[in-house]
Amino acid sequence: MTVQRRALLAEFVGRTDHPTVDALHADIGRAQAGLNRATVYRTLETLVELGLARRVAVHGAACRYDPCVERHHHLLCERCGAVEDVFDAALDALRLPRPASGFVARDFSVLFTGLCAGCAPRRTKAH
Ligand SMILES: [Zn+2]
Ligand SMILES: [Zn+2]
């Protein structure tokens, strides 16, 4: 493991904003000159293969990476693209479907869409 990869790991672990490759590259690139985007991508994919990170697929947008590998769910802001974690025992208890097609469902994660606190219109007081 190179110094650059270690720096990437230190930056990634503990983040809860589900960064894209580009976001991580931009954040680490400042401190680690010469760290290229392909290395960031390969390192993240390796972490996923090792079970140390998860991909969060956002339809129509760049894949996000999540250092939290416990079962959890996500809130996606439709305006700014922010992704927040949701931990909810009731959601975790969902039964995996066993459709007649023969599809074998193994895992799931629920993605809720809406507006984050920063993007939602401010609630006005009722008079
Ligand atoms: Zn937002
Ligand atoms: Zn997450």
Would you give an account of this structure?
This protein is an alpha+beta fold and 127 residues long. The protein has two domains: 1-69, Winged helix-like DNA-binding domain superfamily/Winged helix DNA-binding domain (Arc Repressor Mutant, subunit A, Orthogonal Bundle); 70-119, Dna Ligase, domain 1 (2-Layer Sandwich), CATH 3.30.1490.190. 28% of the residues lie in helices and 15% in strands. The chain contains four helices and five strands; from the N terminus they run αααββββαβ. The protein has helices at 3-12, 21-29, 37-49, 89-92, and strands spanning 54-56, 64-66, 73-77, 83-86, 111-114. A three-stranded mixed β-sheet has the order 4-3-5, with no helix packed on it. The protein has a two-stranded antiparallel ribbon with strand order 1-2. A hairpin with a 5-residue loop joins strand 3 and strand 4 (83-86). Helix 2 (21-29) crosses helix 3. The mean pLDDT is 90. It binds zinc ion (2 copies).
Kindly state the mean pLDDT as a whole number? 90
The overall strand count is: 5
Characterize the largest beta sheet: strand count, sense, and whether it forms a barrel: 3 strands, mixed
Which homologous superfamily in CATH is the superfamily of the largest domain?
Winged helix-like DNA-binding domain superfamily/Winged helix DNA-binding domain
Bound molecules: zinc ion
Identify low-pLDDT runs. none
CATH class of the largest domain: Mainly Alpha
Can you name the CATH architecture of the largest domain?
Orthogonal Bundle
Counted up, domains total: 2
> Roughly how many Å is the radius of gyration?
18 Å
Which strand order does the major sheet show? 4-3-5
**Helix percent band:** 25-40%
- What is the 3D shape? globular
* Secondary-structure element order, N to C: HHHEEEEHE
Proportion in β-strands: 5-15%
